[in-house]
Amino acid sequence: MFTNTKVTHAVRLALVFGAASTAALSTNAVAQETEEAKKVERIEVTGSRIKRTDMETAQPVLAISQEDISRSGLVSVGDVLKEISTNGAALGLQTNNGNTGGASRVNLRNCSSNRTLVLVNGRRWVADLNGAVDLSTIPLAAIRSVEILKDGASSIYGTDAMCGVVNIITKNDFDGAEISAYNGQTSFEDGKRETYSATFGTSTEKSNALINVSYTKQEPIMGGDREISSVPIYGLPANVSINGGRASPTTPYGQFPVNGVSMTLDPSKAGCVANKVCTSTADFRPFNGNTDGYNFAPVNYIQQPSETLSLYAQGGYAITDTLNWKTEVLFNERTSTAQLAAQPLSGTPMVVDAANMYNPFKTRISGASFRPIVSPRVFGAEVDTWRFGTSLDGEFELVDRTFTWDAAATYSDNSFVALKEGFFHSGRFTTAMGPSFVNAQGVPTCGTVAAPIAGCVPFNVFGGPTGVTQAMLDYVSVAPRDLAYAKMWDYSANITTDLFELPAGMVQVAAGTEIRRESGFTSPEPLTVLGQVLGDNAATPTKGGYGLKEVYLEANLPLLADVTFVESLDLSVSTRYSDYSTFGDTTNSSYKLTYRPTSEVMFRASFNEGFRAPSIQELYQGMNDSRPTANDPCSTPPAGSAPIAADIAARCAAAGVPVGFVQKLPQIQAKVGGNPDLQPETSESWAGGVVYSPDFIEGLSLTLDWYKIEIANAVGSYSAQRVFDGCYKEGDAKYCQLLTRDKTGALNGNIGEVDFMALTNQNFKGGSHVEGVDLNIDYRFTTDYGTWRINNDNAYVIYDGSLGKLKRGELTLDGSLSGGNASGRLTAGASGGGTAYRLKSNTTLTWSKDDWNASVTAQYLGKLTEECNLVIGVANGLKQPALKNLCSNPDGTRMGYTLSNGQPKEVPNEAWATNELKATVYFDGQIGWTSPWNSDISVGVRNIFDKEPPVAYSAFANSFDPNYRTPGRFYYVSFTQKF
């Protein structure tokens, strides 16, 4: 790893810079510019297969060392990567509703997680059926470092590497033993995290072996334990369920449509008592959507509990001086739990027979609703991941050239078991709501006196929270068990050499091949397949797989060297041919240029073609129920709001929507499914930058990189809102064909509700455009008081939106209206988080002297703007205009757009209330000491100043986006003993 130029030192600092704010973002110590460093053997850098003697590349690479991870105060690789400046909104254990499987993802450039490739030791990690990697399946304790390529790399690695590559490098060459322990909890005395690990290794001249065992546990944090998450929308009354209020209309006191009026049990009254015939209606009154909604927020997790047990072992043996054998085995077991409010019982199954013993109205009730809060929904996840790998590598001489090669075989699989509680059998529940009576022995019995139903227990929905007994629950409850499995076989071979010499230096080449087979399936609960589990989306099995064969070639050509104004000028070219069994073949190439005019400066530029093959789920997913959130354009606006436009009202009337219809179900009943005819997504990315390390300031380096990524032929499905708008606002028949409405009231007693919407996968001509600038400033210096380092890393997003860099209201290639630039905006209702920061920055100050070290980090999350229409709707509905001031701009307007005859049409002065989420800065600190008995002790605090997340009125199922930190300080201590 050497060169005689000054800029190489700067490049190394940039390449090994660790970007995670709470990972202290410190750089690995780089080899000194000495004669000894010049003897370092050639290595492979993430983003290239050519082995080289330095780390200089035309693409920016970030690195996080094991020390950085230890300094972070975090216990999972997903949490560490979540906080790097280039990561976007991604799932983690801070997402409860919308992440019931407990997965952790990385989402470079905010392009989506399945467009970020994850490698372990340079080879693919098994992905789930949707093509994304669950980072919780990779044990943190086994990691030596993480390298992050912030550019496309399909020509080197193949599919998925459209927006970047994460290469996780495990520990090796460890000699000795080490045990470590970590313990921490929040200032609220909850959310405890602990981890323990032991590493044993030996290394000789011919062989090495390592074993690591680790255990991590994280305890939950409930929504009700933080003020901001204890209500559906913070700052608004907790029980508003109409006009934008997010409280649930399905409550523990029920709704019962009787003679055109929706009745509910008065919470101050007893209602119908369990095990007794009910005849009095005196305890019931009309339901008020402004005061009677159910506050579901307190019983949800805002941090899921989880436990992880992992075992990692690797070994190597030098068979000869030029032939080495390596092997590795990794097992990871993760259990986690998500919890949601009790199952809302509503819709078609909620028909209460007139002869039901608990029905005080003694008339058939259709479209009733009830929530048995004594039985919350629990989603347990058990995830087992195995990885086996073996490889040979070596070198040989031929025609006066040294060739290095490797050949590897890797097998990985991932099994997922979902264990659910708090769900009900629809058939049994229907029976329990049918005719019933108290028999001669005083036992509540389903059926009639002439035809009793043995074993059935009548269910009481008229007695409030205390009216439901354990016997009732035992009869109707089921515990669905869903399975998912994915496996991958991967065979690869690579060879690299210096091919021939040009005047400026040697031409280096690498070539290789890869053969891979991926397959998997889902096996839903049989009752779920039959649609017999209330609240568990009906699903049919998914099964499929694909195979591929690939070859690639990479060459690095030195064009000029040691001439006037050119210290070096190198061109790197690579291409990869991929042949898939599903869609055919594709070829993707890359061109990269590095130019050093002097020893202080390096300019770099690259162009990359990329692709993403459709995942198994996108291709073969069975037809599944879904519940997307959307606003029905046919729903009558609240008092004080603008009425429905005449053309929209006419289309709604033609569809059979009654006058005065008000949407009661914010979550639409939809079907999603796969499409085996999908084609791959494609991308083109450009990047250019400069690395500068001035001679006149020793220890200072600066890097500045611009990038642009364009993704086309995107795989996806229409959103429910797009179908609504396309049908009613634009009058396009193709969207109207995708939905049907309930014209009888059977769904929930509200004639006009959408009871079906088809949202299956397809390729869209359009896609996305992401563009931005990364800036890193790194300065190291030494004083009498110790060694210091200051590092500032910034990711600024210029544009994040539709392909073509469209403005809002312009027409996309698919004929829809562009939403414009999403950078600096919070996407409303995004279940995995909707943050799209324009600026995300991490600053680190580290200090060390003798046996002591310390660090202070600051993570800056730029301001965001969100729509604030929910607040306005509630304020108007409650006739409390002062509530509008919760929005920072409650009376805002903008130019609106709609489609007319397929073309954009302006709608001047469209009401558009917005709210600004102010910039947020989190500070973390740590102090460490190395003892004389060879142990490291550290104490630290995350969120030193107890910074609260900004209130987000449009966030999904919460009042703050899960990509902010959970409120409260977090204190921790760690101990490592080396032997």
DSSP strand (E) fraction? 35-45%
Calculate the terminal CA-CA distance, rounded to whole Å.
30 Å
User: Which segments are poorly predicted (pLDDT under 50) over 5 or more consecutive residues?
Assistant: 1-40
Structure summary, number of beta strands: 52
* CATH class value of the largest domain: Mainly Beta
Please estimate the helix content: under 10%
Q: Supply the number of helical segments.
A: 12
Radius of gyration: 30 Å
Based on secondary structure, the structural category is mainly beta
Summed over residues and divided by their number, the pLDDT gives a mean of 91
Membrane topology: Multi-pass membrane protein
Keywords: Cell outer membrane, Membrane, Receptor, Signal, TonB box, Transmembrane, Transmembrane beta strand, Transport
Main location: membrane
Domain TonB-dependent receptor-like beta-barrel: 387-944
Structure in words:
The chain is mainly beta and about 1000 residues long. The chain has two domains: about 600 residues, TonB-dependent receptor, beta-barrel domain (Maltoporin, Chain A, Beta Barrel); about 170 residues, no CATH class. The strands form 13 sheets. It has a 22-stranded antiparallel barrel. Strands 1-4-5-2-3 form a five-stranded mixed sheet. Strand 30 and strand 31 form a beta hairpin. About 50% of the residues are buried.
